[in-house]
Major facilitator superfamily (MFS) profile domain-containing protein (Aldrovandia affinis), 134 residues
Amino acid sequence: MHNLLLREHQTAERMLVCQFGAMLRWVTLLSGLVECLFFAGIAFGWASLAVILKREGYFSDLCINTTGANSSVYTDCSGQDEQLSLVFTIASMMSRFITLPNGFFFDHFGTMTTRILAILVFTTGGLLFAFSSA
């Protein structure tokens, strides 16, 4: 009788652990989706962000006044466009390069620690970007 009660108790514990594990996987999945929703916007929304950066005057010192074929004067901002493209290229390359150290952190510290570290780094970069000026 004692063995039967002990087995039932162990079975109940295992079921609880399995249910908790399944719930934890769903929470991890949902929080990952929310993170992608909030933190992937800069990479995917770069075209819109570049327009705003131009309007704010980032790299506007690279714009020069040029005379056209019919003696009209216009502003050539190709240098500004090139610099903004360079920023995007470096950011894209770094996001791919960071996967190697990110894998190391995942293996050694676990998912939650790695995600918290990534959120802190991203938030710091976002704040530096927000408080920057042209």
In short: The beta strands are 64-67, 73-76. The longest strand covers residues 64-67. The two ends are 78 Å apart (CA to CA).
